[in-house]
Structure formats: structure tokens, C-alpha cells
Amino acid sequence: MMRPANVITSVADVLAGTAIAGIFLHGSLVPHLHAVILLCLSTACLYSGGIIFNDVFDADLDKVERPERAIPSGKISLQNAILFGSIFLVAGIILAGVVSPVSGSLAAAISFLALLYNKISKHHFFFGPLNMGFCRGLNLLLGISVLTDKLPAWYFLAVVPVVYIFSITMISRGEVHGGSKRNLYIAAILYSIVTGFILWFSYLNNKLLLSAIILIPFLWMIFKPLFKAIQNPVGKNIGSAVKAGVISLILMDAAWSATFGTIYSALLIVCLLPISLWLAKIFAVT
Q1: Distance between CA 172 and CA 195 in Å, rounded?
Q2: What CATH number has the domain bearing residue 176?
Q3: How far apart are the first and last CA of the chain?
Q4: Residue 281 CB burial class (10 angstroms; 0-12, 13-18, ≥19)
Q5: What stretches of 18-168 adopt beta strand conformation (E)?
Q6: How many CA atoms lie within 13 A of 222 on its CB side?
Q7: Cβ contact 131:111 at 8 Å
Q8: What is the pLDDT along the chain (286 residues), one digit of tens a residue?
Q9: Please, what sign has the CA dihedral across residues 209, 211, 215, 217?
Q10: How far apart are alpha carbons 52 and 62 in whole angstroms?
């Protein structure tokens, strides 16, 4: 139920946020290492709790569309799923709160938006994807909050994961019954805008070459299955495009880290990619 491959991408978001805050520069990592670890654990708990509640609220629908999932198949009871989901969300808030009240507030906001998406907004064609995008945007801010004084300077960067996840969530509507080419083309445009935004900041920070090296495989990973889905927008192809989009978040986060951090911080995040890909072969991503 927790979708471990996806959890790894949420950790990458936080690490990218800490890089944007400058935690990997000027010897700042060691004195703040405990805070970085706590925030990584926090986001893992928040994502796990959110995805469990996704299955909780979809239990009746999954009986029809996805009977192999944990709740409709009887592998876990609805009551236990609610219990475990609640424990994860509360743990995520507490872990972030240990770092700072600001971090705890961001974690609480992520929990609220995750529940709001699962219960209500996911059924709306526009506000659902936007809601999910806000969850990822706040996740990036959760990483930046490792140094709370950096949030006023960089909070607007959260718009990038908002736009990116909006795109993925929008096209994911077609995973079961197929989707429209229009949504896929819109996603391609939004992916390009996101890439251009990162490249612009890497240019301003004199890190264009390093970021571009990371963004090339990122673009290959997201556009190859997306173009296949555009040619034939059946559920299977759209599912592959969604899966690639989610896991490719790691490379996007690595590009952020290369732009604001060091090559070593970027490589640290890149190393999460093979772990996520391996987990994606064992556990469902969507």
C-alpha cells in the first residue's frame, strides 16, 4: 500500500529543498545533518500515510476497478489501514516539528492536503491535480525549512513541482480506461516549461552544464513513454507515462540540487534513482 518507490521520490524532494536552502554549501551539512535526516523521515511518513488513505477512500471503487489492491483483496482490513495511515501522518508531523515549528506546520499542511485530495478534490478534473501539486510543492518547502530564514527567498520555487505534479495527475486519469491526447499534449508543454525554469536558474547560478547533464536523462525518461501514450492513449501506455513521470522526479530534484548545491549533493539524489526503479519492479507505483 505504501508504494516504496514513490516514497523515495518524496525523500528526493526534501533533499532538493535542503540543497536550495544551501545546506550542502560552506560546511553547513554537518551541524544540520540531524535536521536533514528528520525531514527525510518525516516526508517518508507523510507520503506513506497519504497513499494509504488514498486506498482507504478508494476501497469501494477498487473492488470493481482494482480488486488486487490490499484492501479489496482482504490483505489488510479497512480499519487497520486507517490506523496505520493515521500513525504515519502523525509521525510525519511530529518528526518535522522536532526540526522547527515551521517545518511542523508545513508537514501538517501536507497531511491536510493529502487527505483533502483523497477524500474530495481528486474527483475534480482541475482542483484534483492542483491539490496534488500543492502537496509536492509544500514537500519541497519542507526541505527548504531546514533553514527557515531561507523560505522567504525561495518559497516561489514550489511552483515547479506544483506544475509538474499537476501534469502527471492530470494524465493519470486515463490509466484505467484510456485518456485524451489533449491532456497528454498539455502535459508535454508543462514538462517543457518546468525544464526551462530549472535551466534558467542553473544559468543564473553558473551551473548550466551540470544541470543540463542531469536534465537530459530526465527528459528522456518522461518524454519517451509520453510520446508513446500520445500515439496510442490506452490505459497501459498512460500508466507507463505516469510511472515514468513520478520516478523521474528524482532526476528533477537532482537538477535542483546541482543548481543550488554541489555535484556531490546532486549525485546523492541521483543514487536514489536505481533504488526507486528497483522498488518499482516489486511494488506498484500508481
Answers
A1: 20
A2: 1.10.357.140
A3: 10
A4: exposed
A5: none
A6: 28
A7: no
A8: 778 999 999 999 999 999 999 999 877 888 999 999 999 999 999 999 999 999 999 888 778 777 888 888 888 899 999 999 999 999 999 999 999 999 999 999 999 999 999 999 988 889 999 999 999 999 999 999 999 999 999 999 999 999 999 999 888 876 666 677 888 999 999 999 999 999 999 999 999 999 999 999 999 999 999 999 999 998 889 989 999 999 999 999 999 999 999 899 999 999 999 999 999 888 877 7
A9: positive
A10: 13
Given the C-alpha cell 486519469, which residue does it identify?
173
Give the residue carrying C-alpha cell 522547527: 100
Total domains present in the chain: 1
Q: Which domain holds residue 42?
A: 4-282
Q: How many residues does the structure list for the chain? A: 286
Grid coordinates belonging to 124: 475534480
Query: Which parts of 30-182 are beta strand (E)?
Result: none
CB proximity list for 8: less than 8 A, separation 6 or greater: 250, 272, 275, 276, 279
**For the packed helices 249-260 and 4-20, what is the interaxial angle rounded to 10 degrees?**
10
Phi/psi region, residue 94 (left: phi>0; alpha: psi -120 to 50; beta: rest), is alpha
- Cα–Cα distance, 12 to 167 (Å, whole number): 19
pTM over the 0.70 mark: yes
Residues 6+ apart with CB under 8 A from 15: 36, 40, 143, 253, 257, 265, 268, 269
Q: What share of the chain is helix, strand, coil (3-state, %, to 5)?
A: 85, 0, 15
